[in-house]
Design a protein that fits this description.
five-stranded mixed sheet; alpha/beta; 12 helices
């Protein structure tokens, strides 16, 4: 492994990051458009290998964490598609696995990785448990999309008179030619998921400024994320002062972090919210290095 070029990939809906290293030296870093979960995931990941090869770097080992993976998306299929780019070994995992490996390494605990979507993963002595990560239609509660969507809902409630005034309505008025036509424009946007998620930043800025509806959204998001973490920890029976990491820009919100922390300790007394050791991209690079028998390995698909 030490003489191979390893390409770590962190693939999310808002963007894809790739980093090629060899013998500890970084050869290349790339940022690519986000993963489309309505298109074939493996094809898109193979394109990442192609993009690296196009920069005159041979991606011998691919270590990937991706959103949108299903049981039919396999490392063997990806290896078959990417061999033409020089790939000879693939480690493929859901992005919750790489987020965990980046945040806590091989230690037990739980991570809540929240960007456009959100997924929680807990690791115990012998098992792992995933909670949520079910996409913007069926889940991703507390995610950037969820917060942005709630902010737009608050804006339209204020517009209709169904809810209190909020700065989110001012944002809609500024960004769209017609408040009542905004939903048509968003629905017609091929990048609507990332676009809705982008409004989370304004929701959380307004929450920090004291906007009532936005503060309520932030508190609800934190509480929902705490519930996901507590549920995952209970499923792996790791309730003895577990380490918990919140990953993603949404945790820059003091309101969300405080709500998560306060609600979590009522659900799992002794839980400790700690800072991540690294990023999900760092975690992807760790996949080939996980020790034999580690619970995370059961969730990593390997093809050679």
């Amino acid at each position: 492994m030490s003489t191979a070029t390893v390409v770590a990939v962190d693939s999310g809906q808002s963007g894809i990051r790739a980093r090629a290293t060899r013998d500890g030296q970084t050869l290349l870093e790339l940022e690519l458009p986000g993963m489309r979960t309505d298109l074939d995931v493996v094809d898109q990941l193979a394109d990442v290998a192609g993009a690296v090869a196009g920069k005159n770097v041979v991606p011998e080992v691919l270590a990937l964490g991706s959103t949108g993976l299903t049981e039919t998306d396999t490392a063997a299929e990806l290896l078959s598609l990417a061999r033409k780019h020089g790939v000879r070994e693939v480690y493929l995992a859901h992005d919750s696995i790489t987020s965990y490996a980046g945040a806590l390494g091989a230690d037990p605990g739980a991570i809540c990785a929240t960007g456009t979507g959100t997924v929680t993963l807990a690791v115990g002595a012998t098992d792992t448990a995933r909670v949520d990560g079910w996409g913007w239609l069926m889940g991703d509660i507390g995610s950037g999309f969820w917060v942005g969507r709630a902010g737009l809902d608050a804006a339209m409630r204020a517009h209709d008179g169904r809810g209190p005034a909020t700065g989110m309505l001012d944002l809609v008025k500024q960004e769209f030619s017609s408040v009542e036509g905004a939903y048509i424009e968003i629905q017609a946007d091929a990048g609507r998921v990332a676009r809705v998620a982008s409004y989370a930043r304004r929701v959380l800025d307004l929450a920090a400024e004291g906007d009532g509806p936005c503060q309520e959204i932030a508190v609800r998001a934190g509480q929902e994320l705490a519930l996901s973490v507590a549920t995952a920890l209970k499923r792996v029976q790791h309730l003895d002062a577990p380490q918990v990491v919140g990953m993603g820009g949404i945790f820059r919100s003091a309101e969300i972090t405080q709500a998560l922390t306060e609600h979590l300790v009522t659900l799992v007394p002794g839980a400790r919210v700690v800072e991540p050791r690294g990023t999900s991209l760092d975690g992807a690079a760790e996949l080939p290095l996980l020790p034999d028998g580690h619970p995370l390995l059961a969730r990593v698909d390997v093809a050679r």
